[in-house]
Design goal:
single chain; 178 residues; mainly alpha; 73% helix; Rna Polymerase Sigma Factor, Chain: A; 2 domains
Length: 178
Amino acid sequence: MNDEKVITAIKNRDETAISEVITRYSRLLWKSAGAVLNNIGSVQDVEECVADTFICLWEHPDRFEPSRGRLKTWLSIVARTQAVNRCREIARRKIVPLEDASFLNQTDIIDGVLQQEAQRTLTASINELEEPAREILIRRYYYEQKPKEIARALDMNVKQVNNSLYRTKCRLRQAISD
């Protein structure tokens, strides 16, 4: 069945058509969402992104335009978008456990032992950061993602990610020293 016939069948609420799409593209969408959620989300997060992609297709088959590309490509883009949104949601929900010494050592913010007052100041400063600076910092030093991975996940270039990290670390150093 070609893409147009599949979409027509889904518009007509043919459950066999959506089952065929799920069988055919589940593995691909799992890889697309998993690449974005790597080291950030859980298996359940990836699973939900894939399920949400198929739900989007079922509820809005008219959003797919065969003249603009293949169904496979469209589904991959929807899955990736779902995963990026999930990453942002996870980053907003999570409070970085700053007791994690490896995170603090990697940021080079404070040499030696981090005292409680400085730790509270640092925590407050990180939580006050605006997006995407906060998300970039957390992805880099808490989830240990490489700047290239962060750039790909946030649809930025590597130089923007590195510049953001540099500026954010300078601001955090200043907050600690004050």
